[in-house]
Amino acid sequence: MMIQVSQLAKIYSTGAHPVVALKDVNLEVKTGEFVSVMGPSGSGKSTLMNLLGCLDTPTSGSYKLDGIEISTLDDTGMARVRNIKIGFVFQNFNLLSRTTAQRNVELPMLYAGIDARERVRRATTALERVGLADRINYRPNQLSGGQVQRVAIARALVNEPAVLLADEPTGNLDTRSGEEIMAIFQDLNRGGATIVLVTHEWDIALHTSRIIHFRDGSLVDDEKVENPRKAVEQLTKLGPGNQNNTHASEISALVVPSGEVPFVQTVSEFDARRGDAQ
Amino acid sequence: MNLLESIRVALEGVRANKLRSFLTTLGIIIGIAAVIAVVAIGQGGRAVLMTEMEKVGTNIFVIYPDWRNQEQSTGNKFELSDMQVLKDKVPAITHLSANSSNMDDVRGPKDKKYCQVRGVSSDYAFTSKLTMKKGRFFSSEDDSLSQRVAVLDEALADEIFGRTEPVGNMVSIGNTPFLVIGLVAKGESIFGFGENVNAYIPGRAWRNMYGDYINELEGSAVSKEKVQETMDQTVKVLERRHRGSEYASQSMEQVMQSANKITGIMTLIIGAIAGISLFVGGIGVMNIMLVSVTERTREIGIRKALGARRKDILIQFLIESVVLCILGGIIGMALGIGGAFLIAKVAKWSPLVSWWTALIAFAFSAAIGIIFGMLPANKAAKMDPIEALRRD
Known about the structure:
The complex is a heterodimer.
Chain A: E1 3-12, E2 19-29, E3 34-38, H1 45-52, E4 60-65, E5 68-69, H2 75-85, E6 86-89, H3 101-111, H4 116-129, H5 145-157, E7 163-167, H6 175-190, E8 194-198, H7 202-205, E9 210-215, E10 218-224, H8 231-238, H9 248-251, H10 263-277
Chain B: H1 3-16, H2 18-56, E1 60-65, H3 80-89, E2 93-107, E3 112-120, H4 124-127, E4 132-135, H5 140-144, E5 149-153, H6 154-161, E6 170-173, E7 176-184, E8 198-202, H7 203-210, E9 216-221, H8 227-241, E10 247-251, H9 252-295, H10 297-305, H11 310-347, H12 355-381, H13 385-390
Parallel strand pairs in B: 3-8, 5-7
Antiparallel strand pairs in B: 1-9, 1-10, 2-3, 2-6, 2-9, 4-7, 5-8, 6-7
Helix pairs in contact in B: 1-11, 2-9, 2-11, 2-12, 3-8, 9-11, 9-12, 11-12
């Protein structure tokens, strides 16, 4: 079991009245699952993500991640778990803006105490995996939204975490870029990655194999998705992209039988080809 | 995160905000430059002062009546006979001069001048390190025979003789004619606040004119180490011979020590002022670091989410402020050394920049970085990652 949450509650008591953000949450996520968390704003899904991400401590209850009881950890222990067990992907990307893609990806390894040569090697590999081999020295403002999010995914993967936590990863992206991101997630999941994704879009949630619904701080529904949408097929359906999204036109050609050639590999091939064309 | 990486991040930050970084460190730059310059000039000045004093001779001493505990603050406390007694009883005395002084008119062929007329012994030329420009100083025979011979300071001779050759010619001191036998060369001493304008005549001749009065005894001991002992013995002998009189003594060595003390105090005072400037500079650094922490809240949130511990963030911001301060310190050091050499060129003495001044300045700026960086760094380290990530 990757994630084991029992009787988890979070109550904010800073204001005049205590606010119950989360109560009586019981949840188990198996290794290799791809779960999406849905719910209207204020339903507690962000609070859950903060707790799962070890950015916050629960008021009561227990949370085990990869066998480690989190609720008893101190600040340093939580930082350590964030560093090696969790990979974050945010809605607003959260890359360091003045820093190149490669240095952004190196960041988690810096705090893991990995030496410089190994950092460079692993950052390069991770960027290649998300199809950005030719964008290693670009800064975020020189990249498109989809590319920036792919850098963020590379960063999240680089310490080989136990779980990927994605908070509305497609929220700031157009449909095509969103599908590309989902294709990467599906591919990673197929490779065995455990992923928890928060979204309020059904279209996105239907790409995952299980959907959990939150309302008013409680887990209200937990459903299995019989036939998850395949992002690669969606990309084909979207057809050729517009001028601003040049590489989209070629992504439709990347449809491959599931499980055989990883999508990310094809993306990198594609980007490499595109680099040649320029 | 390792140290090197933090320094690299800090330097990138400085490079990204060049003007701001410069303005921030200006206080440090000025403070360090001031400290370096002041200390360098002070040390150089002190070295010059000390060599000058060494030149005068560190084994020279002066004995004079101590009026402080005596009801009557006038009267003659020395006798001429003391001289021979002292030379006999205190063998460490190599030279001894009984000095008297009075203001009078000294008239030459061109002009007259109201100036110091000093009645001294022949040893005076040695104890006061007079350099003769022409002729000779008077001998002990001249003195014991009360010869009317005079030695003039070069500046005085120039004034009252004009183009006429002074040596071998007559001057009248008061109304008594004297034969000029020598000229004293102008000193190159830095103590000369203007030139000496004195006429020197044998002690006996002086006493014949102005009365039996001796102001002070000026002597020289065999060595620098023996000065204190010699002075004490001299005072003891004198007090035994003149019951009820007290004598005080001062050596060049003591003058040097007090000069040393004074320059030390001066350096300390100016150092304190420079210290205040550094303190203000430190506050400037703290202020900008606080701004920087607020500006980079998001970055702190990202770093924390990716696994930075409080310690990592603390060290990162501390290193930034230390790097800022050390850069300021280095610029300040360069400016200070440059300034010291510039001033020294005008003042004509070479500044002394000792390695420890540079080291202290360096350590001091690093310490300022740590002390004034602590508060902002701590603020950054304590930030809640969720709050920090939410900020734009």
